[in-house]
Amino acid sequence: MGSTNVNRRDLIKRSAAAGLIAVPAVGALTSCASGSGEDNKVDKGKKTKDNPLGVNKSAPLEIYIFDGGFGTKYAEDAQAVYEKNFPKAKTKLKSTQKIQSVLQPRFNGGTPPDLIDNSGAEQMDMGVLVGKKQLTDLTELLDAPSIDDPNKKVRDTLRPGVVEMGQFDGNPVWILYYAYTVYGVWYSQKALDKLDVEYPETWDDMLSVCAKAKKKGIAGWTYAGKHPYYLPFSLYPFMAKIGGTKVLEAIDNLEPDAWKQPAVKAALEAYYELYKKGYVLDGTPGLDHIESQTAWNEGKALFIPNGSWVENEAKKTTPKDFDMRVAAPSGLDSGDELPFGTLWASGGEPFIVPAKAKNPTGGMEQLRIMLGEKSSKNFTKQVSSLTSFDGGTDGLDLPPGLKSAVGALDKAGKNIVNPRIQDWYVALQKEKIGVACLGEMMAGRMTPAEAMKKAQQFTDEAREDDSITHYKH
User: Fold this and answer.
1) Helix (H) / strand (E) containing 115
2) 315 touches 322 (CB < 8 A)
């Protein structure tokens, strides 16, 4: 592989070419008017051993859940526990796939719900919400005793990195990520066995596997072409593997040369090879996340970049003998900074309590219930995903995908990365870098050099935009 590796790294040295006209971004939550409702909060209840947050036992509670890959049943079950604990409280749980469209007007009007699962394609921009002081600091929740053990704080029951993810500036914690997501390259072990190949650990091996699949009429890759911000689920840790974690930190920090880094160039050139060699499923740019997952389930493609919610989201079309697996991205070559197994894993399903919620204490109490072992196990059994509760899998018969995800975490060890751009700068990550750069490149309408130049332009614009709250590692 020596000469091939040298040639591949020589690709890094190419100079960037001209960029493409930007695709307009989907409107983010840019106006968060204070609105009415300054004094609309319910009175707090008395703090007791059984009610450590001081929930008003008769106050209504309104919850909004993103109706996506995890569904809503897990939240409804936790809601039932709240109602049992506080029988005089009227609770209301609603769901939608259009979080921003439905809830932004309520934020602007000062009448948001008490607890929101701010997820999905229409996720409200977390950086904007924090910057405009629209969220409740959840430190009180984290310092409260856990549901299971009154001698242990909620924060001490969480997986590493979860608390830090909810912080933007300083110590306040604005977001509680409930799911714990393993991102990577998903595949069917049966499909690889049928081709008599193993999961490729280097990019040359990846191309060889894709070439073998193509001869059998099978595409190497597919992805959510209509939502190409799924591509970074494997692309970002690939960049980090090549050049180290500093590569992603520069992107997160909106640095002037973030997208000019050699590791970024190498990673984009590698992915572009998939398009150039015809290893991407025909029509992929026109597929949404469900359609691409279905094509993958049907054996039309070997690999798909995704998160650990996919096992539940795709279960209706997944064959019983599919044997779903996830792996860390293939490396570039032996010159990579980090070992094979380097993985993106972090909190998912961001739950927030709006600052102007009527019953913020009730919203936090609902989260405290959800972060107990019983609710955590219930979530894992229902949707084949881990929660941010550190545990909750003992005694469970894990499905193949989730079992594989746990194994991938074990293999990664300390080599877990967590790009913050996706929650610090949602519009930049999804629509600008995701759609207008990576999506265009993988559809063959932009070269890697052009994608790098355009991504850097978007990054520079975000850095110079005084209307955006900026964050740094």
Assistant:
1) strand 115-117
2) no
